[in-house]
From TrEMBL:
Source taxonomy: Eukaryota, Fungi, Dikarya, Ascomycota, Pezizomycotina
Identification of the protein by name: Copper acquisition factor BIM1-like domain-containing protein
Domain Copper acquisition factor BIM1-like, first and last residues per copy: 18-163
Transmembrane residue ranges: 189-207
Cellular component terms (Gene Ontology): plasma membrane; side of membrane
Length: 208
C-alpha cells in the first residue's frame, strides 16, 4: 500500500514534469525548467543545481526583499527558506511562517518578505533562498536563488512586482492548537522529502 502511494506520486510527477515552477526574482541559480539540462526539481535542496564560482548573486535587502515566482499549477503550498553562506546546505531559517497556500498559475510577486530579526547577517553576507512547493500528495519541488544581503539593496518597485490576476496566496492558518499544527508541519516536510526522493528514483527508473 505504501509502495502504491509512492508509485502514484511518481506517476503524478512524470505527468507534471513539464510544469513545475520558476523563480523570477531574485535570479535563480539555474533554469531548472530548461529541457537542455538535467536538473530535476524533485531533487533537494536546489534541484541538483550546484553553486558555481560565477554564480548569479542578486543584491537583496538586509532586512528582507522581494520574491517573484512563476507558478504553473492550479494551486500549491509554498515554503520559503534561507541559509547563510556561499554554499548552503542548511536552510535553517524560514521566511514563510506559517507556510503559504497559493492559488492560480502565473506570476506571484511578494514585494516585501521580511528576514528573521535574529538572522546573524551584515552587509555583504551571502545567503541562498530556497523555495519549496508541495502538492496535495506530498510531491515536493525545489528551486534556489543565491543572494548577497546588502544594506543598500532595495525591494522591487510596484511596477516590477506585479502578481497576475487570479494568483494569490494565504498563509495556512495554524489550528487552534498552534503548537501541534507546527509540529505536524515539520513532520510532514521530513516525510514528504523522503517521498519526493523515492519518487525521483521511480521517475528515473521509468525513463531509463
Ligand atoms: C543529460 O543526461 C543524458 C542521459 O544521461 C546525457 O546524455 C546528457 O548528456 C545530459 N545532458 C547534460 C546537459 O548534462
Ligand atoms: C559547494 O559544495 C559542493 C559539495 O561539497 C562542491 O562540490 C562545490 O564545488 C562547492 N561550490 C563552491 C562554489 O564552493
Ligand atoms: C547568469 O545569468 C546569465 C543571464 O541570465 C546567464 O547567461 C548565465 O549563464 C548565468 N550564470 C550562471 C553561472 O548560471
Ligand atoms: C493556467 O492558466 C491558464 C489560463 O490562465 C489555464 O488555461 C490553464 O488551464 C491553467 N493551468 C492550470 C494547471 O491550472
Ligand atoms: C543555521 O545554520 C548556520 C550554519 O550551519 C548556523 O551558523 C546558525 O547558527 C544556524 N541558525 C539557527 C537559528 O539554527
Ligand atoms: C489550499 O488551497 C486549495 C485550493 O484552493 C484547497 O483545495 C486546499 O484545501 C487548501 N489547503 C488548506 C490547508 O487550506
Ligand atoms: C551597494 O553596495 C555594494 C558594495 O559596497 C556595491 O557593489 C553596489 O554597487 C551598491 N549598490 C547600489 C545600488 O548602490
Ligand atoms: Cu510541476
Amino acid at each position: 500500500m505504501v509502495l502504491a502511494a509512492f508509485i502514484l506520486v511518481a506517476a503524478a510527477g512524470a505527468q507534471l514534469a513539464s510544469a513545475h515552477f520558476g523563480i523570477e526574482y531574485p535570479t535563480w541559480r539555474a533554469n531548472t525548467l530548461s529541457s537542455s539540462t538535467n536538473y530535476s526539481q524533485w531533487t533537494q535542496p536546489c534541484a541538483g543545481a550546484p553553486v558555481l564560482p560565477d554564480a548569479n548573486r542578486t543584491d537583496w535587502p538586509l532586512k528582507g526583499g522581494s520574491l517573484k515566482l512563476d507558478l504553473h499549477h492550479a494551486w500549491t503550498y509554498i515554503f520559503v527558506n534561507l541559509g547563510l553562506g556561499v554554499n548552503v546546505t542548511n536552510f535553517n531559517y524560514t521566511l514563510s511562517d506559517p507556510f503559504w497556500n497559493s492559488t492560480g498559475n502565473g506570476t506571484l510577486c511578494v514585494k516585501s518578505l521580511p528576514l528573521p530579526t535574529n538572522l546573524p547577517a551584515t552587509d555583504g553576507t551571502k545567503a541562498t533562498i530556497q523555495v519549496v512547493t508541495l502538492g496535495e500528495s506530498g510531491n515536493a519541488l525545489y528551486n534556489c536563488a543565491d543572494v548577497t544581503l546588502r544594506a543598500n539593496a532595495t525591494a522591487l518597485s510596484d511596477s516590477e512586482c506585479v502578481t497576475d490576476p487570479g494568483v494569490s496566496y494565504v498563509p495556512v492558518q495554524q489550528a487552534s492548537t498552534a503548537k501541534s499544527a507546527g509540529t505536524m508541519a515539520s513532520v510532514d516536510i521530513v516525510s514528504l522529502s523522503a517521498v519526493a526522493g523515492l519518487a525521483l528514483v521511480f521517475v528515473f527508473g521509468m525513463s531509463l
